[in-house]
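Many groups now describe folds with learned vocabularies. In that spirit, our science desk offers one protein's residues alongside their backbone shape tokens.
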Amino acid sequence: MKKTNMFFVFALVFNMIFSASVFAETLVIKGSTTVLPITQKVAEAYMKDFPNVNISISGGGSGNGIKAIIDGTTDIANSSRFIKDSEVKQAIDKGAYPVPFSVAYDCIVPVVHPDNPVSDLTLDQLQDIYMGKVKNWKDVGGNDHPVVVISRDTSSGTYEVWEEKVLRKERVFPGALLQASSGAVVQGVANNKNAVGYIGFGYITDSVRALAVNGVVGSEETTLSGAFPVSRPLFIFTRGWPEGTTAHFIKYLLNPEKGQNLVKEAGFVPLY
């Protein structure tokens, strides 16, 4: 009798587990490492509220996220820049039209090691540093030490915004150390007293020190007002107009009392 009862209990538990796995939906999100902390935080809350949904999130850069939307290998692409005309054409050629949603605001902040005495750089000085024209910190008010330049790689939306607003379409000089993620930039600057890098506002930690640009400190207020010179919106893209779980997740993310509160918790600037 006991063996029979145990068999039925085992069968019931197995059936419940199997049924849950069968009916669970999976939402795939790929792309920008800048937008990554936002979607991670929102996904955690969403899966807690809706446990029948599994959300898979990976980085790789804005360009890779948009490529995944074009190829149909992701439901949502995180992007810290707007989609390019050439990418729209590629998508249309494959029978899809990318739909953008602005999810937050951000500013790209130059950062240095906490021991670096420099506190403010102009856009011209930043351009000269990243083009390799300024090679020593003493040339911009710092100590007599060589400047170690850290940059995001060219697949990054953060790099493309930096290239547009700081480098003004010039290329970063070949001696720069290229990193694949914002977290890697933070780590690189934190471990080198002579380094300078740039990261999204939400990635600032005590291990690095943010610099003012043109005398303006990056903050929620200066980002929303546009006073900080390297500000931008952050996006997600879908392959066509979203439906089902994808649409429901986006509504959750844009909800002022849910997802947008989590945007602020992640260190970024909410839309509202």
About this structure: The longest strand covers residues 98-112. Confidence is low (pLDDT under 50) at residues 1-22. The chain has ten helices and eleven strands. The radius of gyration is 22 Å.
